[in-house]
Design goal:
Elements (H helix, E strand, L loop, with lengths): L1 H14 L1 H22 L15 H8 L3 H31 L4 H30 L6 H22 L3 H15 L3 H11 L5 H10 L1 H4 L1 H9 L6 H29 L1
Helix pairs in contact: 1-2, 1-5, 4-11, 4-12, 5-7, 5-8, 6-7, 6-8, 6-12
Length: 255
């Protein structure tokens, strides 16, 4: 995804964009075919569950305060995430024009390795402590987002390519810990027969993220002030999202 997008720029330069697109699509078919032919569904192991109509599911879901707070926090997080994904390469190109190839490699490594480590460790942490203290599902991502804010200052204001890359890597690791707690909250706070609809609503909040790049594009003047706009947006969004995640954790405890 986002990580390979940076690497594909270098590959397209060497092999041509058509060949790169064909290669990536062929690679993507491998796990898809494995999923189709290896993973089997055994309906006899399913528990008998009462199916709810869509409107009944929505009514039940929207009565959950933790879930409503989850939707708000996720919307804000997607908003900032999409803006950063869209304009981060532009920021590095304007600020460090001689480090484009290095940025592509570093950004790829950060997204792949820091992203995997972040979600894996976050999932482990939530599984280990969430059973006894479900409020951690909200407080944990809230704390990580607050810690990620100084990393944004390092990323956009350091003036050094490698310090900016360091801020990006640490900030990405901290800020991407929010996804496993989202999944755990839905699984533990909502009835099983409504969780499919709940996950659909959560996924729909990513639509809000499309407005993030539009906002940055509105203020961007094509000069070095892009970093200031991104810093302001990321800091505000991380802080607001952290507030709603914390409120979500508190509402889980009250419940």
């Amino acid at each position: 995804g986002y990580g390979f997008a940076s690497l594909s720029i270098l590959m397209a330069t060497s092999f041509g964009w058509r060949n790169v697109c064909i290669a990536f699509n062929l690679i993507a078919t491998i796990p898809l075919l494995l999923l189709i032919f290896i993973v089997k569904d055994n309906s006899r192991t399913h528990q008998q569950k009462v199916k709810l109509p869509l409107m009944a599911s929505l009514q039940s879901i929207l009565q959950s305060k933790p879930f409503i707070l989850l939707l708000i926090a996720s919307s804000v997080r997607f908003f900032s995430g999409f803006a950063l994904a869209e304009y981060l390469p532009i920021f590095f190109k304007r600020t460090y024009p001689t480090n484009q190839e290095t940025f592509a490699s570093i950004n790829f490594s950060i997204v792949v390795f820091c992203g995997v480590a972040s979600t894996t460790l976050s999932g482990y942490f939530c599984d280990k402590y969430g059973r006894k203290y479900q409020g951690i599902y909200g407080y944990f991502p809230a704390g990580m987002l607050i810690l990620a804010i100084p990393c944004m200052f390092l990323l956009f204001k350091s003036g050094s390519f490698y310090l900016s890359a360091l801020g990006l890597g640490v900030g990405y690791f901290l800020s991407e810990t929010w996804i496993p707690p989202i999944v755990a909250t839905i699984q533990h706070q909502l009835p099983a027969q409504t969780q499919g609809v709940a996950f659909s609503l959560y996924s729909a909040t990513s639509l809000i993220g499309n407005f993030g790049p539009a906002v940055i594009g509105w203020f961007d003047k094509g000069d070095s002030t892009l970093g200031d706009h991104l810093l302001f947006l990321m800091s505000i969004c991380y802080f607001v999202s952290a507030i709603f995640f914390a409120l979500m954790g508190k509402s889980i405890l009250i419940k």
